[in-house]
Amino acid sequence: MARILFAVLFLTGQTFSVNICNDKYVMFSRVFDYHFVDQPLTWTEAQTYCRQRYVDLATIQNSEEIAQLLNTLSSFGHASEVWVGLFYEINWAWSDGFSGSGADYRSWKTSYNEPNFASASQFCVCSDSNGKWWDDFCGNHYPFLCENGFTQSEAEMVVFKTLRNVC
Ligand SMILES: [Ca+2]
């Protein structure tokens, strides 16, 4: 069982570690794909939609996932902005709570001086069809990108349940 799980988790390149039986296990996390939802909603409404039907709004942790995002959007012929899971609340954070390797990856649209917290009230993040991000008003309505699969915490729980009888 554990071997199968590790094989599945190995499909991504990102790691996290868990401590079980006084041993430290380095795990591969976040097996997922993106789902484009062509329905303009506020960021919070989009978050609720993704959590009800998939896992959460999309987390993006490296340039390969930017490429995956762009492939998803182009496959739908979508060439404008979408909400992703990044938001600001004291610090930047991902909607799914992901905090592992790559959680601090950013693809800001620096040519527009983003993020600029315009009007001191832009706390939710859009990506354009080139994979560049900016902060925007959370109450704006945009299509959005959900993710489906294991989040880090879910993967940790599966690994823990799999290994705890080994001790
Ligand atoms: Ca902005």
Automatic annotation (TrEMBL):
<keyword id="KW-0732">Signal</keyword>
<keyword id="KW-1015">Disulfide bond</keyword>
<dbReference type="InterPro" id="IPR016186">
    <property type="entry name" value="C-type_lectin-like/link_sf"/>
</dbReference>
<dbReference type="InterPro" id="IPR016187">
    <property type="entry name" value="CTDL_fold"/>
</dbReference>
<protein>
    <recommendedName>
        <fullName>C-type lectin domain-containing protein</fullName>
    </recommendedName>
</protein>
<feature type="signal peptide">
    <location>
        <begin position="1"/>
        <end position="17"/>
    </location>
</feature>
<feature type="domain" description="C-type lectin">
    <location>
        <begin position="34"/>
        <end position="147"/>
    </location>
</feature>
<dbReference type="InterPro" id="IPR018378">
    <property type="entry name" value="C-type_lectin_CS"/>
</dbReference>
<dbReference type="Pfam" id="PF00059">
    <property type="entry name" value="Lectin_C"/>
</dbReference>
<dbReference type="InterPro" id="IPR001304">
    <property type="entry name" value="C-type_lectin-like"/>
</dbReference>
